[in-house]
UniProtKB/TrEMBL annotation:
This is TSN36 protein. The chain crosses the membrane at residues 7-33, 45-69, 81-104, 202-227. Its main location: membrane. Pfam families: Tetraspanin (PF00335). Signal peptide: none annotated. It is a multi-pass membrane protein. GO terms for cellular component: plasma membrane. The lineage of its organism: Eukaryota, Metazoa, Chordata, Craniata, Vertebrata.
Length: 229
């Protein structure tokens, strides 16, 4: 019993730290899908982030309750803690499963979505230069084209002859124009790989923040069960 009480006290403080980590992960996922909403039409893709935020909010009172039980046992508090731990496990398993399935779905659609943006940019003659969705992505991620700058050459049209947008240039060459005379001034990587890496980090972060706390919550449930006997 004394070991269970000590473990619960320690886990209570750990839960507060995990709540902060969960909060960061949830906000990151939500902001990623908000910033690149023109690539993803489905609004539900940010659901793992919202589940992570809900988990973080529930972890805070759970941590308080866990520390309180380790000091003074109460049947009502112990029962409430069990319900909260069960709720947290459900939320975290759902968040982990959604993060995996959504990431697989997103990566399969990302290439065609980027290709469409490049094609649209080259064929819309009335488009304001530098203000399209693909220009915003290229400036933000310091990338050029879907795979590299040659994607812009293949997509040349009567409205936009062979060349690259100004957003393709590296920051120190941002004053340059979209000719093909100085290829070394273009951003080296394509946007597809950088977007995939960005999304992979956000989803893996949420996945890790769901699996690791669930193990600690099982330990807390076992310790609480020992004290309830």
């Amino acid at each position: 019993r004394s070991f269970s009480q000590s473990l619960l006290r320690l886990l209570g403080f750990i839960f507060w730290g995990i709540a902060t980590v969960q909060l960061y992960g949830g906000v990151s996922v939500i902001l990623v899908f908000k910033n690149y909403s023109y690539l993803f039409q489905e609004s539900y893709l940010s659901l793992p982030g919202w589940l992570a935020l809900a988990t973080a909010l529930i972890l805070l009172p759970t941590g308080v309750l866990t520390v309180s039980i380790s000091v003074k046992c109460s049947c009502k508090q112990q029962g409430t803690l069990m319900y909260l731990l069960l709720l947290l496990l459900c939320l975290e398993m759902s968040s982990a499963a959604l993060a995996c399935s959504y990431y697989a779905r997103i990566t399969s659609q990302l290439g065609s979505a980027m290709g469409y943006l490049v094609h649209q940019h080259k064929w819309l003659c009335s488009q304001d230069p530098g203000n399209s969705a693909v220009d915003i992505i290229q400036r933000k991620l310091q990338c050029c084209g879907v795979h590299n700058y040659t994607d812009w050459i293949k997509a040349s049209s009567c409205c936009h002859p062979a060349g690259v947008p100004e957003s393709c240039y590296k920051e120190k060459h941002s004053h340059c124009r979209g000719g093909l005379d100085h290829v070394e001034q273009f951003s080296d990587e394509g946007c597809l790989k950088k977007l995939e890496d960005h999304l992979c980090f956000a989803m893996l972060y949420v996945f890790g923040c769901s699996i690791v706390p669930s193990i600690l919550e099982l330990l807390a449930a076992i310790s609480n069960g020992i004290l309830m006997r």
